[in-house]
Write a structure and sequence with these properties.
single chain; two-stranded antiparallel ribbon; 4-stranded parallel β-sheet; alpha/beta
Length: about 220
C-alpha cells in the first residue's frame, strides 16, 4: 500500500503498511474524512514523521489523540496551528519550559520547530472526529504507533523518551531501557499538573543535558 510519508519512515515501516489491519484502518479513515469533519487535515495526518525523519529522531514525546476542536490539530502531539489559542496542557508545557530553562513564553503553539530538531511528536491515534475525543481509537492507529515506537527502540540508540502520564507510560512499556533514556512524569493537563504531578519535572533541561553528554545538538525548546 502506498502511504504518503517521509521516505526514511517508509523504509522502516513498509512491512507495516502491507498488514491487513493497516489497510482496514486506511479504509476507515478515508470513509470518516469523506463523511465527517475530522482532524488534522488529511495532508497533516503524518506530519510528525514528515517534520522529523527517522534518522533525525533524538527525542520522542508520546501523546494520546489529536485535538478535536476546529483548526487546532496539525499532526504533532500537543501542538496547535499558528494563531490558535494554546490548550491548557500546552500552556503547562510552556510554563515548565519557562521555569526550567528561563525561556520567554512563545508566541505560537506550533511545535514544528521542535520536530525539525529531531523531536518526534507522536500521538497514539493520528486522527479524530470533530468534537468527539477518542472517536478514532481502537481502529488500528495504536497498533501502528506501537510499531513505530518498537522500530525506534530496536533500530536506534540513546533516544530520549518523554513519557507524560499513565497512558504514555503504558505506551512506552516495551522500550529497551538499556539502550535509551526514559524520563517519566505526570501529564501536563491541569488535572494532573494541579495535583503537583507535572511542574518541576525539568524534563527539558534533563533532555538537553543527556544530549550534550553524547555530543549531540541540544533542543532549542
Amino acid at each position: 500500500m502506498f502511504v504518503k510519508i517521509h521516505s526514511s519512515w517508509h523504509e522502516v515501516l513498509s512491512a507495516e503498511f502491507e498488514k491487513p489491519y493497516f489497510e482496514q484502518l486506511i479504509t476507515f479513515v478515508k470513509n470518516e474524512y469523506t463523511t465527517k469533519t475530522c482532524f488534522p487535515k488529511g495532508t497533516q495526518i503524518f506530519s510528525a514523521f514528515d517534520h522529523c525523519t527517522f534518522d533525525d529522531v533524538k527525542v520522542v514525546i508520546i501523546g494520546q489523540d489529536p485535538y478535536h476542536g476546529f483548526g487546532q490539530a496539525n499532526g504533532l502531539c500537543f501542538s496547535v496551528n499558528d494563531g490558535i489559542a494554546f490548550p491548557p496542557s500546552l500552556i503547562n508545557i510552556f510554563k515548565e519550559i519557562q521555569t526550567d530553562l528561563k525561556h520567554d513564553f512563545p508566541s505560537t503553539g506550533n511545535l514544528e520547530r521542535w520536530a525539525e530538531q529531531g523531536v518526534l511528536l507522536l500521538n497514539a491515534t493520528l486522527t479524530v472526529r470533530e468534537s468527539e475525543a477518542g472517536s478514532h481509537q481502537n481502529k488500528g492507529w495504536e497498533t501502528f504507533t506501537d510499531a513505530v515506537i518498537q522500530k525506534i527502540s530496536d533500530e536506534k540508540e540513546n533516544v530520549v523518551f518523554l513519557l507524560w502520564g499513565g497512558f504514555a507510560k503504558k505506551k512506552g512499556a516495551k522500550i529497551d531501557r538499556a539502550k535509551h533514556h526514559i524520563l517519566e512524569t505526570g501529564h501536563p493537563s491541569p488535572l494532573s499538573a494541579n495535583r503537583g504531578l507535572w511542574f518541576g519535572n525539568k524534563h527539558f533541561s534533563k533532555t538537553n543535558t543527556y544530549l550534550k553528554s553524547l555530543g549531540k545538538q541540544e533542543i532549542e525548546w
